[in-house]
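ENCODED BACKBONE
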Amino acid sequence: MTSKGFAQLENICKTTSEVAALNFTSHNARVAALLRHESSKTSVRDAAPHERKLFTLVDELGKKSRQELEQPTPLRGPGPVTVDKLLRAANVLAQICDLRDVKEKIESLAQQHEEITSSIDSLESIREKQRINLEKLKITTQARNSKRSNDHPIDQSQNIADEIHRTNMEIFALEMEKSECINRINSIEDELNNQKCLEEEETELNYRLGMMILSDEPDDAEESEDLEVYH
């Protein structure tokens, strides 16, 4: 509702308050002369039982009166208060109390309410169409996903086979590298063994050579002694 509508509602509320503040009691001089303030209290206190019920509110009567007030009336239906009911009540009040510019304001509010209701109905129709389109799109998406899930095992099995093939090729390449490394290690071990054998042979030869040198030294000493004796 626009600010103009709120202003019109405020004017209606103000006018209603002014109407409620009007004094419609009739000042009868004869009654006022007969019943003073104390006498009026006495008359109420000394009233008959059925008359005292008008001035006494007990729980049961209070509940009953509230239930009677809650009963539907031509202006107050069984349902909740709506704008249509308020407008009808305002029209009735406008017919009872002929106030200036009230009917025009009520008609303006009714027209604005009709426009807003029409706009809401249009938006509700658009929302319902969007909901139907969304349901159709959801069904289509579910069918598409179901089809993809049915095709997915074939693609997945092919991917698994390709992965196994690649893994086997990598394992074969690693085994070839392992074989080459083993051959290199074996050749290195052979070279080390050969070198060790050569070192052992060299040590043996050096030992024999040393023994031969030691065995030849006594003979040389005897020959030198013989030469000295001969001279």
Observations:
- The mean pLDDT is 72.
- The first helix runs from residue 3 to 20.
- The chain is about 85% helix and 0% strand.
